[in-house]
């Protein structure tokens, strides 16, 4: 039995080592980078670039917040016909006063949450180290 295992191991070893040779398998593959052609260089048709004026502001030196507002809301450009139609369909001219305008009015129905909620909302901003509970009972000590 031992001789049979040694012979089988030897045959497997010789078979695996023979697979490493280049006798039956050609590894020459086409180079994918050599197949594609390089695009020819194109000279731009317009050489009428005007040099910048001395002291003029650079176009890219605008504030990032102004660039964001221009990107979001389109700057001072006129609205397109489809944009106007969408706003009219949404009720641009017949819309009620917004919630932000009526939030503090005396006719707005509100739920009274009590003095505690008002104290929390009106509390000064901080890290919470100086926070104290305002109870009539003595504060229980916390174990350290």
TrEMBL record:
Pfam families: DUF3035 (PF11233). PROSITE patterns: PROKAR_LIPOPROTEIN (PS51257). Residues 130-144 have a biased composition (Low complexity). Keywords: Signal. Residues 80-144 are annotated as: Disordered. InterPro entries: DUF3035 (IPR021395). Residues 1-21 form the signal peptide. This is DUF3035 domain-containing protein. It comes from Sphingomonas naasensis. The lineage of its organism: Bacteria, Pseudomonadati, Pseudomonadota, Alphaproteobacteria, Sphingomonadales.
């Amino acid at each position: 039995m031992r001789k049979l295992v040694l012979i089988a191991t030897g045959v497997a070893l010789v078979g695996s080592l023979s697979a490493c040779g280049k006798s039956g398998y050609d590894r020459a593959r086409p180079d994918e980078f050599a197949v594609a052609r390089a695009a020819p260089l194109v000279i731009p048709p317009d050489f009428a670039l005007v040099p910048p004026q001395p002291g003029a502001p650079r176009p890219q030196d605008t504030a990032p917040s102004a660039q964001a507002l221009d990107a979001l809301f389109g700057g001072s450009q006129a609205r397109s016909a489809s944009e106007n139609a969408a706003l009219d369909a949404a009720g641009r001219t017949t819309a009620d006063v917004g919630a932000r305008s009526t939030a503090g009015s005396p006719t707005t129905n509100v739920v009274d949450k009590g003095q505690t909620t008002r104290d929390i909302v009106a509390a000064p901003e901080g890290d919470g180290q100086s926070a104290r509970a305002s109870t009539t009972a003595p504060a229980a000590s916390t174990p350290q």
